[in-house]
Design brief:
Elements lengths: L1 E5 L4 E4 L5 H15 L11 H4 L2 E7 L4 E5 L12 H10 L7 E5 L12 H6 L4
Parallel strand pairs: 4-5
Antiparallel strand pairs: 1-2, 1-3, 3-4
Length: about 120
């Protein structure tokens, strides 16, 4: 069983043996950590850009992340997953972190938050 934080809608399903307050703490701190990771070419963090599709917190505190990039040819493709892994691994209580890049659904600017749109002047 797992706890899933769907970061686009920021909903949390409590399905694991972890206490709900621990799931909430981990989810909040993971999101905070994700907001420290920036695409080197874009002045907005990857969370607000909508590049994180799913964060799955498992019973053993390992974390699986599904993320995408703005384009398959993204020059930061080699470094962003490691940056995400390191950011999440820095959260106290998190176990092994696994980051996977997915291309479906394809990223579009519609996934960006209002904060990212403001930073990028995309109104």
């Amino acid at each position: 069983m797992t706890d899933t934080a769907d970061v686009k809608t920021q909903t949390i399903e409590t399905l694991s043996a972890l206490p709900p307050e621990e799931t909430e703490r981990l989810s909040s701190e993971i999101i905070t950590a994700l907001k420290t990771v920036f695409d080197p070419e874009i002045p907005a963090d990857i969370y607000e850009l909508g590049l994180i599709y799913k964060v799955d917190i498992k019973d053993d505190r390992s974390v699986d992340v599904l993320m995408t990039l703005t384009t398959p040819n993204c020059p930061a493709a080699g470094e962003l997953p490691t940056m995400v892994e390191n950011a999440i691994a820095s959260v106290p209580g998190v176990g092994i972190v696994s980051v996977s890049i997915v291309w479906e659904p394809q990223w579009t600017p519609d996934r960006m938050s209002d904060e990212a749109r403001l930073v990028l002047n995309m109104w």
